[in-house]
Design brief:
The protein is α/β, with parallel strands linked by helices and about 100 residues long. About 30% of the residues lie in helices and about 20% in strands. The chain has a domain at about 35-100: Histidine-containing Protein, Chain: A (2-Layer Sandwich). The chain has helices at about 10-20, 35-50, 75-85, and strands at about 60-65, 65-75, 95, 100.
């Protein structure tokens, strides 16, 4: 003879015991938003502080945490690196790298 299974639980018991509470999904407080002006300053400072970008004139514009870089670089590696530096700044949502490649820039 086989053992009989326990009687089925009510729908209410199942949902209360089987579904995790919303507390399980809570995350910490949202990070503070950084103003576009603060992002311009931070990105410019990061670019200016990097010795690999010394001597380049890179323009920085920000609109709703989206950074646009303009200017000229001597090669694609330098332009890409400038984009990486900008992306690493806290608060930057995206980078549109419009730096032109101009040998000897």
């Amino acid at each position: 003879m086989t053992k009989s299974k326990a009687p089925a639980k009510s729908y209410e018991e199942i949902t209360r015991q089987e579904i995790p509470s919303f507390e399980f999904f809570e995350q910490g407080p949202a990070p503070a938003k950084v103003s576009d002006l603060d992002l311009i300053r931070a990105v410019r400072a990061a670019l200016a502080a990097d010795p690999r970008l010394a001597g380049l004139s890179i323009g920085v514009a920000v609109d709703r945490a989206r950074v646009t870089l303009t200017g000229a670089a001597i090669g694609p590696g330098t332009a890409a690196y400038a984009g990486d530096v900008a992306r690493a700044v806290a608060g930057v949502a995206a980078v549109d790298n419009q730096i032109a490649i101009t040998p000897g820039a």
